[in-house]
Specification:
196 residues; alpha/beta
Length: 196
């Protein structure tokens, strides 16, 4: 019993000492957007090899709805799938997670038109100050992407990931400015918007 108690005590103190270490997944930044008229937050995740090979360039994944939970999930997938153990199914990549604005609902930036949300003649939801997708696209094209390209070792490959209203925005960019990103991952987009 005494040996068991000592083993649990030992494990507790080891666990407690490791629990106090901070794991930094990404660095949080701010960018003053002239186009959007506000400070925008974004976080940058760098792949494990970024600081080892200073000549190497990396594709960039732009993650919409880029809160810490979504960033952790995506970084874990990208990191795992780019390892030898999983046969390097994808390249290591820089991830730029762009959370929603604190000054507006997410639908403001993700919707291409300013309409009530109806389907088959039924009002689903009414929003105010929406339909800002053109400006949000310009924010990426003229402010965020050039800033990332200037400050990080980026390749020409850029991926946009959006889900739900973020998927609606990604679809809008694909249809109106398709060369802004080389690849799109559109998940469960809100295609009901503005009568499909």
């Amino acid at each position: 019993m005494k040996a068991l108690l000592m083993a649990f005590s030992y494990l507790y103190f080891i666990t407690a000492s490791y629990a106090s270490e901070n794991i930094v997944l990404a660095k949080k930044h701010q960018l003053k957007s002239i186009i959007l008229g506000e400070q925008r937050s974004y976080s940058v995740y760098l792949p494990p090899s970024y600081k080892q090979n200073l000549e190497r360039v990396y594709p960039v994944i732009y993650l919409l709805d880029g809160d810490p939970t979504h960033l952790k999930a995506l970084a874990g997938l990208v990191e795992a799938l780019s390892t030898e153990r999983l046969e390097k199914q994808i390249q290591q990549a820089i991830i730029v997670a762009v959370p929603n604005s604190k000054n507006a609902i997410r639908e403001r930036d993700f919707t291409p038109t300013n309409v009530d949300w109806t389907f088959n003649g039924k009002l689903l939801e009414k929003f105010e100050k929406i339909g800002n997708a053109a400006n949000y696209t310009a924010f990426f094209e003229k402010e965020l992407i050039p800033f990332i390209n200037k400050n990080y070792r980026t390749s020409n490959k850029r991926v946009l990931i959006g889900e739900s209203f973020g998927g609606l925005f990604a679809s809008y960019v694909l249809l109106t400015n398709h060369s802004l990103f080389t690849d799109y991952l559109i998940i469960d987009a809100t295609y009901l918007w503005d009568n499909n």
